[in-house]
Amino acid sequence: MAIAKLTLELYLPLNDSLKGKRGILKPLIARIRHDYNVSVCEADAQDVLSRAVLEIVCVNSSSGLAQRELEKVAHRAENWRLDAQLYDYYIELVD
């Protein structure tokens, strides 16, 4: 069994309020949870209006499958919206 964690760093250039940030992140988190059956949380920069850090965790039978699944999630987040730009992402594997 393999556990993998994806950290997404998003840049929200047009956002000007916490309510606006929630309006961008909430549908993204719901879509990722629904489509990929993973756990998602906002891990850092909760008070920063133009930045968001999401952490996504996946459990799978092999580390290769877990990594591919999280790469799909990262590409989905990259193409999600024009007002939420993927700044960086990285995947950590725990065997």
Walkthrough of the structure:
The protein has 95 residues and is α+β, with helices and mostly antiparallel strands. It has a single domain (2-94), classed as TT1725-like (Alpha-Beta Plaits). The protein contains 2 helices and 4 strands. A 4-stranded antiparallel β-sheet has the order 2-3-1-4, with helices on one face. Strand 2 and strand 3 form a beta hairpin. The longest helix has 19 residues, at 18-36. It is elongated and about 40 Å long. The relative contact order is 0.34.
Which labels suit this protein?
95 residues; Alpha-Beta Plaits; 4-stranded antiparallel β-sheet; 2 helices
Largest sheet: 4 strands, antiparallel
Mean pLDDT: 88
- Proportion of strand residues: 35-45%
Spans of 5+ residues with little confidence (pLDDT < 50)? none
Task: Supply the helix-strand structural class.
Answer: alpha+beta
Number of helical regions: 2
- Give the ordered list of helices and strands: EHEEHE
Adjacency order of strands in the biggest sheet: 2-3-1-4
Q: Indicate the radius of gyration in whole angstroms.
A: 13 Å
The backbone outline, from C-alpha atoms, is: elongated
Query: CATH topology, what is it called?
Result: Alpha-Beta Plaits
Distance between the termini: 7 Å
CATH homologous superfamily placement: TT1725-like
Number of strands: 4
Q: Which CATH architecture would you pick? A: 2-Layer Sandwich
What's this, in brief?
The protein is α+β, with helices and mostly antiparallel strands and 95 residues long.
